[in-house]
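Batch job 17 of 40 flagged for manual review because the log was empty.
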Amino acid sequence: MFQSIRTGGTLMHTVFLSIVYALLCLVHLAACLMRHNAVRGITKPFLMPVLAFLYLSFDKTPQLLVFFALILGSAGDLFLLFTEKPGCMKAGMTAFALGHICYIAAFFKDINAVDPFVLAAAAVSYGIMVFILYRHFGKFLPRAMLIPATAYLLILSAMSVSALLHFASAPSLNGLSAVSGSWLFIFSDTLLTSFLFKPGTKQNNFSVMLTYIFAQTFLAAGFAQAFAR
């Protein structure tokens, strides 16, 4: 493991970035918990860039698609800090959607033959999930957000399906990490949508960011060769 880390970046560099990322996550989550919006706003845009460079440090042959996915996630994070401003919500969704497309492309680069039964089961399962979420949130979303939100949901689901197919084609700890990350991403975005649009739902930035941070971390770890088994 350490040999793989050293070929991506020096061991000290990797340890330093790991500590910075852990501290940044802890400070941000504490700010969310204490509703300290100033600290939350300052730390949020730096989470994914630090994770992106940590990923580069862990992987001797990193995929730029994964790096770009994380950077696009940072752009989405920044836009979503200003959801009250016109266009910021759609801009944030667009940035995250482009990041998911990068993940999809990265997964499909390594997908081998997939069992047709697995493909059919995934299509049916995710189709049911999309239908349920659409029926549930379609009642609360503003009309102007319905089409963009539906498109985003389809892209997010496609990212998760691609992670599952990647794992099914060659089971590994990396693949399991990526699948788990994709599921956490769906859960985090479901929480966020509820807080933003469903009447009577108490906003809880802590739960959204906790699941989001784990989602992106697990996805990045899914591609990191230092964890390959």
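Reviewer: the log was empty due to a logging misconfiguration, but the result itself is present. The radius of gyration is 18 Å. Unflagging and moving on to job 18.
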